[in-house]
Amino acid sequence: MAAAVPPPPAAEEGGAILNEFTPPILLADKILKLAQEAVSSRQECVDIAQQVDQIYRKLQATVRLISTTTQPLYERPIRRIVADVTKNLERALNFVSKCRHSGFLRQVFSMTTIADFRKVSGLLESSIGDMKWLISIFDPDGSVGLPPIASNDPTLAYIWPNIATIQMGSIKNLEAANQLTLLTRGNDRNQKIVVEEGGVPPLLKLLKDYASPDAQISAANVLINVASVPDRVKSILDVLGVPIIVQALNHSSMRVQIVVANLVSQMAELSSLAQEEFARENVTKPLVTCLSIDMVLDDPKVHLGKSSFHSVVEIKKQLVGRASNSSLNLNSSSDSCSLYSDGSSRGGHQRKEKEVDMVLDDPKVRLGKSVVEIKKEFDGRASNSSLNLNSSSGSCSSYSDGSSRGGHQRKEKEVESSEVKLQLKVNCAEALWRLSKGSVSNSRKITETKGLLCMAKIIESEEGDLQYNCLMTVMEVTAVAESKPDFRHVAFKITSLAPKAILYQLSRLIQEERDPRLQVPAIKSIGSLARIFPAKESRIINLLVMQMKSINMDVALEAVIALGKFACLENYNCVAHSKSIIEFDGVPPLMKLLGQNEAAQVPGLKLLCYLALSAGNSKALEEAHALNEMKRMARLVFAHTDLHELYSKAIHHLTLYQAGAHHIHRHHFSP
């Protein structure tokens, strides 16, 4: 005997909604009986009875359709219409009840007029139209018209049928979603109506329809339009929309991924709660995967040259790439290639990176061993390793996500045009930017993947929006690292590969770029990482000092702020950094900015105070008349209470150490 098939979810929903039909059906039955007993206004009662009979039949037909349908129900209009029909039937019952009284006095006190009849008749006619519409939404081939109940709000009359079409799984899903896209584009009221009328769950359901990419795109576009304010973003979170969005980003075609990435970006920008929800679903992994399409992170080109900051990075990259092409037998088990680079349960690639680290961290290397010798030493270690790994399960993917993506997906990626791939990367980079802003969890996940390395390569080789979005992502991640020491110590080790690559690209942008749009975030990022630089690292200091002389005031201001983070007392190496700033002739441009740029006065004064405290006996400060300039800015300090103590200490320090001053000031600033 065959096992009983459980009822579909729609049946459970139908069982709950069917209870709404009981009151109007009983009312209609009672009206029909009372109409036969009418004494006065018999013709009017007959007409009302005919209208009620139509409503009665349509109520029964709707109940039968709901009981037999296998599709999910869009309950919002059903409940509204049935409630309105019930109200109109109650008025009809009241009219018919007055017409059944016999006797002169009873007829006088229960008198009905033609106006009463016409009003009730009009209400019943509207209910008939509403019931017709309600029945029509169950017919996929039927024409869904405009229900009279929505006549007072034409917009609602358009939104209801389209949401119903999507919810009921009609073949017209795409058309309905396109209509909603047009209705909600730039229209706040329509966006609000879609949310209030329960349109978000059907749209999320359509987003999971992987067999119809066009419908997915339309659904995502409607959600983008709707998620224009934090409250409506929360409505998507409340119906558990984030897991569905992340799944669509993981499993959909590239054209769909472009729009979904845009949705992720918008939601993350508007809601910190959405940021954390996306972090829980690990949305950064598919975003980084899409960002690294056609990118082989493990085999970059190597520039041979002197042993500099950049050459060490490139040497390390080449060594990892060479190891990947060596004759070692690698086991391509599920963990042999990984998107992550934090060192936890990683496969052969991670082991190769560790061996590279061993070579690069060797004292002999630090003492100046040549590039060729480093490579030979690494090759020797690789050839002597005893890794015995089986490649029977397939070779590692060169993509940075580490997943063993099948041939079908790779082919699909390859057939897409370069324009589509570029747009996908741009949108994914922007989504990572919005997700990482102020979010420790998302920033940590980006650094745990090869996201930083991927973005370093893009910053180096790309331009336009893609380069800018990656740079802004780096800026936000470093801003989080600045405020979270634990995260900074793990994610931005100065000896690690990805941070080295990022730092090199940031310094290159600062030095070579002439576009403030790129220079400003690069300088901000360097400033956020000021505490990771050792005392002997003076090249970055020199670059920032040079930018204080920039003709662009935004660039010069950011350079002052960044240098302030190097020289601040909270920085362990503040004394060494302050001396480097002075050695690179940073005092004259600083004094010039203090006199010319009002916006630079507060950060500039802070930097000058830090220099005075760490290198108060400097001749450069004396020659620049730093003490007199600081005293001239006393009024500015009154307006910024956070400067009082710092300013007072700096004045006192300079007064003691500036032997070349005209006279010794024995008092110091006391606000």
From TrEMBL:
<feature type="region of interest" description="Disordered">
    <location>
        <begin position="326"/>
        <end position="360"/>
    </location>
</feature>
<feature type="compositionally biased region" description="Basic and acidic residues">
    <location>
        <begin position="350"/>
        <end position="360"/>
    </location>
</feature>
<dbReference type="InterPro" id="IPR016024">
    <property type="entry name" value="ARM-type_fold"/>
</dbReference>
<protein>
    <submittedName>
        <fullName>Uncharacterized protein LOC111457240 isoform X1</fullName>
    </submittedName>
</protein>
<dbReference type="InterPro" id="IPR056694">
    <property type="entry name" value="DUF7792"/>
</dbReference>
<dbReference type="Pfam" id="PF25055">
    <property type="entry name" value="DUF7792"/>
</dbReference>
<dbReference type="InterPro" id="IPR036537">
    <property type="entry name" value="Adaptor_Cbl_N_dom_sf"/>
</dbReference>
<feature type="compositionally biased region" description="Low complexity">
    <location>
        <begin position="383"/>
        <end position="403"/>
    </location>
</feature>
<keyword id="KW-0677">Repeat</keyword>
<feature type="repeat" description="ARM">
    <location>
        <begin position="198"/>
        <end position="241"/>
    </location>
</feature>
<feature type="compositionally biased region" description="Low complexity">
    <location>
        <begin position="326"/>
        <end position="344"/>
    </location>
</feature>
<dbReference type="GO" id="GO:0007166">
    <property type="term" value="P:cell surface receptor signaling pathway"/>
</dbReference>
<dbReference type="InterPro" id="IPR000225">
    <property type="entry name" value="Armadillo"/>
</dbReference>
<dbReference type="InterPro" id="IPR011989">
    <property type="entry name" value="ARM-like"/>
</dbReference>
<feature type="domain" description="DUF7792">
    <location>
        <begin position="20"/>
        <end position="139"/>
    </location>
</feature>
<feature type="region of interest" description="Disordered">
    <location>
        <begin position="382"/>
        <end position="416"/>
    </location>
</feature>
